Amino acid sequence: AMLGVPGCATCHQNHEVVRATDAMLGLEDGAVCARCHSAGDAGGEAAATMRAQIDSLNRAFAAADSILLRAERAGMEVSQALVDLGGANNSGIQARAAMHAFDVAAMTEKIDEGLGVTAQAYRRGQQALGELQFRRTGLAVSVTIILMLIVGLLLRIRLIERQEPTA
What we know:
This protein is mainly α. The protein has one domain. It is 71% helix and 0% strand. The protein contains 4 helices and no strands. It starts with 6 loop residues before the first helix and ends with a helix.
């Protein structure tokens, strides 16, 4: 609207409706913000900050999702953590919506919520993998003890068989 163009059309084109992606935000090649802003002006700084925040949430989400899926594939119960991780996705959607107000503080609030959720989910994934390792160690120890008992019983049976007088 400031450029004499309707608000949405300024960034999203007039008739060519393209699917919005995170690449549209920021100052890199292909970013719509770079058409009007540079790194030196307030709008450019805001765009770069918002893009960095979105990227950090995306990385944190991917890391948490990855560790939870590893734990799930290993048979650990992490379904609630995966459901909770969906909250980070919701925060990302809300942050992208808040971006349209060009208010870095409002977007930061939503990003911080999402980062908190992803950090919690990542910790739960680490705990699940730690528990898996503990279970594997316990299984190895118990199998070793059982095998030692079997070998001991076999040796004892042989000893008894040797001591029996043959008739």
